């Protein structure tokens, strides 16, 4: 498999999952602004959406959308415990989380990124920050009394939530009202697979 990624972007989530799963893969860095690969070729020829993550599959073809990609990887390594079996209520719980993280948190942070400051009004930024705070409070509550979002076992939802939380310092978002999120982010950051993913992305 080949993971198309940008350092620190949402592609960090499937990158972590690949390492947690212990599966072989290659990393391909994307210049998202130019939509090019290192050899100058057009990334949109790989993924017409022009977005990371994108996963080139061993059986051929490209899988896009982070929530689908992490489930695909985890299902390739069922012994990793990264995702419950398909069809169980526990699986739907993880899918519920992935969707919440993707649609409410991931896309909720974007308007607050400093690089978009000129494109987003102050009024909208204030509103977006308020909404994001409310959604983070829900995630904080979900973690009450648990090490990870679904309990004591690290799942693909944790990799995605951790990735989005890792952006909060960039938008100067104060996590102190959410002690469970802070402890969770530190717990996930300490996992060897996560440290290895950060190290590999820093090397480029
Ligand atoms: N719906 C996609 C969104 C992926 C996404 O937003 N990727 C960002 C990086 S975190 C990106 O590629 N941005 C560049 C662009 O949209 O042109 C998913 O969940 O995988």
TrEMBL record:
<feature type="domain" description="GST N-terminal">
    <location>
        <begin position="1"/>
        <end position="81"/>
    </location>
</feature>
<protein>
    <submittedName>
        <fullName>Glutathione transferase GstA</fullName>
        <ecNumber>2.5.1.18</ecNumber>
    </submittedName>
</protein>
<dbReference type="Pfam" id="PF00043">
    <property type="entry name" value="GST_C"/>
</dbReference>
<dbReference type="InterPro" id="IPR010987">
    <property type="entry name" value="Glutathione-S-Trfase_C-like"/>
</dbReference>
<dbReference type="InterPro" id="IPR004045">
    <property type="entry name" value="Glutathione_S-Trfase_N"/>
</dbReference>
<dbReference type="InterPro" id="IPR040079">
    <property type="entry name" value="Glutathione_S-Trfase"/>
</dbReference>
<feature type="domain" description="GST C-terminal">
    <location>
        <begin position="87"/>
        <end position="204"/>
    </location>
</feature>
<dbReference type="InterPro" id="IPR004046">
    <property type="entry name" value="GST_C"/>
</dbReference>
<dbReference type="InterPro" id="IPR036249">
    <property type="entry name" value="Thioredoxin-like_sf"/>
</dbReference>
<dbReference type="GO" id="GO:0004364">
    <property type="term" value="F:glutathione transferase activity"/>
</dbReference>
<keyword id="KW-0808">Transferase</keyword>
<dbReference type="InterPro" id="IPR036282">
    <property type="entry name" value="Glutathione-S-Trfase_C_sf"/>
</dbReference>
<dbReference type="Pfam" id="PF13409">
    <property type="entry name" value="GST_N_2"/>
</dbReference>
């Amino acid at each position: 498999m080949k993971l198309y990624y940008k350092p620190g972007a949402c592609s960090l989530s499937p990158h972590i999952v690949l390492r947690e799963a212990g599966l072989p893969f290659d990393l391909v860095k994307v210049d998202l602004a130019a939509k090019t690969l290192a050899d100058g070729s057009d990334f949109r020829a790989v993924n017409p959406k022009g977005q990371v993550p994108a996963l080139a599959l061993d059986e051929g073809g490209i899988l896009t959308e982070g929530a689908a990609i992490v489930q695909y990887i985890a299902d390739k390594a069922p012994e990793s415990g990264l995702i419950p079996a398909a069809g169980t209520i526990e699986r739907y719980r993880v899918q519920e989380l992935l969707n919440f993280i993707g649609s409410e948190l991931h896309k909720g942070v974007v308007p607050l990124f400093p690089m978009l400051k000129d494109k987003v009004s102050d009024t909208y930024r204030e509103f977006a920050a308020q909404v994001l705070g409310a959604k983070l409070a829900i995630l904080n509550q979900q973690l009450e009394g648990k090490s990870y979002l679904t309990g004591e076992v690290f799942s693909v939802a944790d990799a995605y939530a951790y990735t989005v939380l890792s952006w909060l310092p960039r938008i100067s978002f104060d996590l102190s009202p959410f002690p469970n999120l802070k402890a969770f982010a530190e717990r996930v950051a300490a996992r060897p697979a996560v440290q290895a993913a950060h190290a590999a992305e820093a090397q480029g």
